[in-house]
Design goal:
With 499 residues, the chain is mostly beta strands. Bound molecules: CU-O-CU linkage and copper (II) ion (2 copies).
Length: 499
């Protein structure tokens, strides 16, 4: 009983009733007390419950320990266009198996873009189109989705819209949206969780038209950091099983375990992205303040000082950290509640003419809607008996449209996580749009949630209301929990934007 509960709370939903058999009774008061806390001061309880023990139903043992700070964190290379025309850059990407060094001195087989566990970074600019030709060098059909992008449905990486092995296809990204830290990843039906886990992800950094005049830290001082977790066996192979989340105990930053990263004693812009399938990172920087300047959809209206940044799967936070007060030789550790993630080693001084302006970027004006109006109710719940995960009581069906939305309209959605009994957090990601968070159970959104978002954490037993304006594109787009074992288990639905 306890094992089954752990399995589900660990995010590992097996399909087809593998989990099923016994109806679980509601949990006792201790468990309930752990609910609703993952965003609060005691948030670490719920987190620890999912990860605190390695026994349970997860197969095998956790990864062998790796001493932290032994390897240097790489910065993913920036992809060079194969052609550039007046208003479009064309890129070429190979999706291929690769053998890469993740753990020190050991090769690990991954499925990746361009031969790495972290794909190359695409740097794009608002108002300038990008076309990427993806060539599938794998033995299976896959696709690519641009998470956070406003793109036509035919270029969105729909789960059934796949590139067969040996074939290639073009995806077109108009980039008619404000600058933001976007990312690309696989979205193959029922296989996205394993594919993303094995390396099918990379950054897509969209620079806003007027961003340079802000003089935020740039070039080598603007560093994307992809966080995830993994389970390695003794030979360094990546172990994947949906129910194995408790054993994914190796934390990776840009694909290396708890690395160090040499920095100069000056300001940096770090773009933090959580690509893990289940883990929510609760990040603190050794007591230093992180100045959050951006979220999923790009710059916030104004910087916000944070002691802790919480990132559920798929979410991004851009923070500026100023190491100017640190002595040369100083070390600053970025910690998750489960352990260190990354250490910044201050190795040199440096001139710094960057700044963090008090005003960053105005948000698009909100159409005024009657307060308290809610257009759609979205519920998130796992089914312990069937081993399925539901949105509004249903598993994903590509032949069913769950929400019809009028092009250009503005709607308020209330997203409610009904998994109070098992204290299981979810989040919700909407394709196509960036939305605003209106409230959490009637209370104002958290610091750092005042900007544009495409993914929102919905802790067990809570509701979040979001306001979404749908643009010009027509067609079918997904919304789903970005804890990818949950979306594979059915916690995914689709909206159709109609004229
Ligand atoms: Cu990160 Cu359906 O996407
Ligand atoms: Cu997406
Ligand atoms: Cu979920």
């Amino acid at each position: 009983m306890l094992n089954r509960r752990r399995l589900l709370t660990a995010g590992g939903l097996a399909l087809g009733g593998v989990v099923g058999g016994t109806l679980l009774l509601p949990q006792n008061g201790t468990t309930r007390a752990a609910a609703n806390t993952s965003l609060g001061a005691h948030g670490h309880m719920a987190h620890g419950m999912a990860y605190g023990t390695a026994h349970g139903t997860a197969p095998g043992r956790p990864s062998p320990p790796v001493a932290p700070f032994r390897v240097r964190m790489p910065v993913p290379r920036v992809l060079t266009p194969v052609a550039s025309h007046r208003d479009v850059d064309v890129y070429q990407q190979d999706i291929q198996p690769a053998s890469v060094e993740m753990l020190p001195g050991i090769r690990t087989e991954v499925l990746g873009y361009g031969g790495g566990f972290v794909g190359p970074t695409i740097r794009a600019r608002s108002g300038r189109r990008v076309v990427v030709r993806y060539r599938n060098g794998l033995d299976r059909a896959v696709n690519t989705h641009l998470h956070g992008g406003h793109v036509a449905a035919s270029n969105d990486g729909y789960p059934m819209d796949l590139i067969e092995p040996g074939r290639s296809r073009y995806y077109e990204y108009p980039n008619n949206q404000p600058g933001a830290t976007l990312w690309y990843h696989d979205h193959t039906h029922h296989r996205e969780a394993e594919h993303v886990y094995r390396g099918m992800h990379g950054f897509y950094l969209l620079e806003g038209e007027d961003e340079r005049r802000l003089r935020l830290p740039s070039k080598e001082y603007d560093v994307p950091i992809m966080l995830t977790d993994a389970h390695f066996n003794e030979n360094g192979a990546l172990i994947y099983a949906p129910e194995d989340t408790p054993n994914r105990n190796t934390l990776l930053a840009n694909g290396r375990p708890q690395p160090y990263f040499p920095v100069a004693a000056r300001r940096y812009r770090f773009r933090l992205l959580n690509v893990s399938n289940f883990r929510t990172f609760h990040l603190r920087l050794d007591g230093m303040t992180m100045t959050q300047i951006g979220s999923d959809g790009g710059l916030l209206p104004a910087p916000v000082n944070r002691d802790e940044v919480v990132l559920s799967p798929g979410e991004r936070a851009e923070v500026v950290v100023d190491f100017a007060g640190c002595p040369i030789g100083g070390k600053v550790v970025l910690n998750d509640v489960s352990g260190p993630v990354l250490r910044f080693d201050v190795v040199t001084g440096a001139a710094d003419d960057s700044r963090v302006p008090d005003v960053l970027r105005p948000l698009p004006a909100l159409p005024s809607l009657p307060a308290g109006r809610t257009d759609r109710e979205i519920t998130l719940k796992v089914d312990m008996v069937r081993g399925a995960a539901y949105i509004n009581g249903k598993v994903f069906d590509p032949d069913r449209v769950d929400a019809r939305v009028r092009r250009g309209s503005t709607e308020v959605w209330r997203i409610t996580n009904l998994d109070t009994d098992i204290a299981l957090d979810h989040n919700l990601h909407l394709h196509l749009v960036q939305f605003r968070i209106l409230d959490r159970d009637g209370a104002p959104p958290l610091p750092g949630e005042s900007g544009l978002k495409d993914t929102v954490l919905v802790p067990a037993g809570t509701s979040v209301r979001i306001q979404v304006t749908f643009g010009d594109f027509l067609g079918r787009y997904l919304y789903h929990c970005h804890m990818l074992e949950h979306s594979v288990g059915g916690m995914m639905a689709q909206m159709e934007i109609v004229a």
